[in-house]
Amino acid sequence: MWGRPSSTLPTPEDVPLEDLSVHWLERALKRLIEEQQRQRPREVEPNPPSVLERMTEILSLLRDTWSLLFSSMAGGERKRSEIVVSLLAVLELCRQGKIRTQQTELFGEIVIEGQPPTPPEPEPMEAPSAESS
Predict the structure, then answer these.
(1) Within a domain: 100
(2) Domain housing 73
(3) How confident is the model at residue 3 (pLDDT cuts 50, 70, 90)?
(4) At 107, which CATH number?
(5) Of 58, 100, 102, 123, which has the maximum CB count within 10 A?
(6) Cα dihedral 10, 11, 15, 17 in deg (nearest 10)
(7) Overall domain count for the chain
(8) Which residues of 36-60 are buried (b: 16+ CB within 10 A; e: fewer)?
(9) Residue (of 4, 99, 92, 86) closest to 49 by Cα position
(10) Residue 129 within any structural domain of the chain
């Protein structure tokens, strides 16, 4: 459990209750309520984007270019959920070996590159048989 040890709390005798008033408590409560009202509520997106759709979109972008920057996919006026989905899509494509990523410095730009498809392994050729000579 997280908490403050009881030894750091003042004893009830050390807390001056004579200076407290209902009006001070009321003012403190009003300030807390006003502060909460000033904070903008978060909007919840009804249909967040799909990771699979974003993976397909990234692969299609990489068919037309050698590389792209993560900020170009996640920047601008995108919502937080779109940025998270983009990052999850990039991580999954990396895991699958379909793309490569590079980041040369801490908090630097993430470069995404398409991974060339691996060619099928050639079938082993049969050695000529001794009967044909």
Answers:
(1) yes
(2) 51-114
(3) low
(4) 1.10.10.580
(5) 58
(6) 150
(7) 1
(8) eeeeeeeeeeeeebebeebbeebee
(9) 86
(10) no
Which structure tokens are listed for 83? 């940025």
Q: Which residues contact 45 (CB under 8 A, 6 or more apart)?
A: 79, 81
Q: Is the pTM of this model over 0.70?
A: no
Structural contact between residues 55 and 89, judged by C-beta atoms closer than 8 angstroms: yes
Rg (the chain; Cα; Å) = 31
Residue 56, domain member (yes or no): yes
66 to 29, 51, 99, 130: CA distances (angstroms): 58, 22, 11, 50
pLDDT in tens, 52-108: 999 999 999 998 888 899 988 877 777 888 888 999 999 999 999 999 999 888 888
pLDDT-derived band at 5, boundaries 50, 70, 90: low
Instruction: Please write the tens of the pLDDT for every residue from 31-40.
Output: 888 887 777 6
Q: State the pLDDT at residue 116.
A: 73
